[in-house]
Amino acid sequence: MENFFLSCKECIKETPLSIYGCFYLGPFNNSQSLTVANALRRTLLSEIPGIGVLHLEIDGVAHEYTTVKGLRESVLDVLLNFKQIVLKKANKISLNKPLYGYLSVRGPGIIRASDLRLPPSIQCVDPNQYIATLNEDGKIVLKFTIVESKNKSLKPFFEKNSDLSLLKKRSEEITVGAVNTNKKIEIKNTSLTSFFKDKSPKNALFVDPLFNPIHKVNYTIQPYGPLKENKENQIVIIELWTNGSLYPREALYLGLTKLKNLFFKLDEMKLIHSLMVEANFKDKQNYTKMLRNVEHDYTHFKNTKKRSTKKDLYPEMVFKLQNLENENIENPKISQSSTMVIPTSIPFVQVKDNTGIEDLFLPYRIYNCLKKNHLSSIEDLIQYSPKQLLELPGFGNYCLIILEENLKKKGLHLNLNETMK
Prior knowledge:
CATH class of the largest domain: Mainly Beta
Largest sheet: 4 strands, antiparallel
Number of domains: 3
Structural class: alpha+beta
Radius of gyration: 40 Å
Strand content: 15-25%
Strand order of the largest sheet: 1-2-12-11
Distance between the termini: 71 Å
Shape: elongated
Number of helices: 14
Helix content: 25-40%
Order of helices and strands: EEHEHEEEEEEHHHEEEHHHHHHHHH
CATH superfamily of the largest domain: DNA-directed RNA polymerase, insert domain
């Protein structure tokens, strides 16, 4: 990708809450353009963070179905209007903790987004955005919480505690006219100073915000030049629409940065693995041993499925004799006092099985040498002594060590007698 480019075709501000951008990205190979375009589109629609109003508290309102005196809209309509308010940050610093905004208005009049008292680092994209209308005797006092997050579902408190008993109690309290006549709900109107200073949400109304600043993303793949001259002959055309809090160019750079950081973590993991391998195999002898133990022949691959079906050819009595012999070597005093007679050598085990030597998973050189000398089964192989095997052409000391180790894994050993049975 020597001639790789990223250029902006056009960027148009359609409305205060909609900015359109079109970009050229490429060139790519035929097998790469669709992969890059799809990954970038999914990243833009899910990984770009934004800010919004999470929930708000209205003075004198206990739930969404309360009627506010002097307010023309219902509380649900106010929540939907707050959901449509688009906010943006004045700087690039991310919000580590929630911020709070306030609103205190007396009627008559129309409440717009410009009436909100926002923190210094937060701005409203469209100040003329409509919120509600107050009559002459109307008054509304509320505070709202501003958070930064990705486009994910933030469940409110009453959805987390979705017990049937709680729902039954709420349905009993909320009947006709939002308040049951048998049970009265007392709502205390606090002063403005105490209401704004209290940070703990008591009657929080969840807004269900949409944090992602990108509304829609489309991509188109087009050819770029003749195929004979350029193998990288496809470009990706990215079209995206934002809500005005983020310019399309910034959103595209953020999406590309997210993808780059994701693949950089995978490459960093591969680098850590290679450093661990180099640290473990600094010694050349250990490295060569590891390479010798790995079989790259077809017989190893062919017989992997047979490993679980093979029977253990080593009798239990030989295990007991071998353990007793080891105890005799380590503690000779025990053998003198014991009346049990322990043999000094492991007896030869006669195996009546035509299991092939492929089951030993030997390297190809040793396997080929034994096959040429007509040793095709384990039963024939263990009839030979180590001295007799060393007399075979092409069979050396290294081959004998590997063979004895593989036989030991099966619980077998070569014939220790000099004569063949």
